[in-house]
Amino acid sequence: MHSGIRNPGNVDAARGEIGMSRTNIIALLIFGAILGYFLSFGTESTRKFKAGVYQLLAPFLTSGSGLQKQITSVRTGLKSLEQLERENAAMQVENRTLRATNQGLRDVEHEVNRLRHALNYRERSVFKLIAAEVVTRDSSTWWRTVTINRGKQEGIETDMPVVTDEGLIGKTTTVSDSISVVLLVSDENCKVAASVEGSREQGIVSGERVTAGLNPLLNLNFLSKQADLKPGQKVYTSGVGGVFPSGLLIGLVKNFRVRELDGQGQLAPAVDLSHLEDVFVVTGRK
Fold this sequence. Notes:
single chain; six-stranded antiparallel β-barrel; 40% helix
């Protein structure tokens, strides 16, 4: 009963499809007419027509080609950057290796020079010397004592002078079979009979109390009030007392002052007591 009635929506859709078909047909006819019109002009006109079409399409073709080139360039740049990063990492590793090798060579060179210097000093010294190394040093007694790796087994005894090639550093105190404690000249309990170069002045050198971080000075006491000490004069062991043989350099005069009962000089130690490595124990004269 209702089969004869059409849906208005379907009717409109059908009409739209017919309208679109007609429009497409008309467009094709117009395009064909234009194409036929241009083709009827002959080869030259056809070529001009193609040239015009290419002229219209050229910007799009060019932009596409440029974009492709840019993409290729970016990819190449990324590849080059990764390669540079790998090369840079390899160079850093190589650089660290070379630095470590150079440091090792410098350490070996320093050790060889140190041993050669010590050997030369022992050969030219007028004293019999036993070579030793500083093995421990307590920060609480930094300017007072050091421990060396030689003892009774090597013939070390108490109250033997200890020196470097630069001068006196102290004397042995506690001696065991394989190690010995050395009392430094910078300690106030270390007393050394001394004489001043170029004069008849003699006195007693001892250390003084210092706070941590300060290089100690030595005091040369019991000089005459008339002593005319000059900065830079050398002070040697005098040999008085029997512990220290004469001729060992103790230090250099820094200043002189007159006290109530005597004159006193201040000395800079001949040896840098803050850096002690190789030392020698004096066992007598050759």
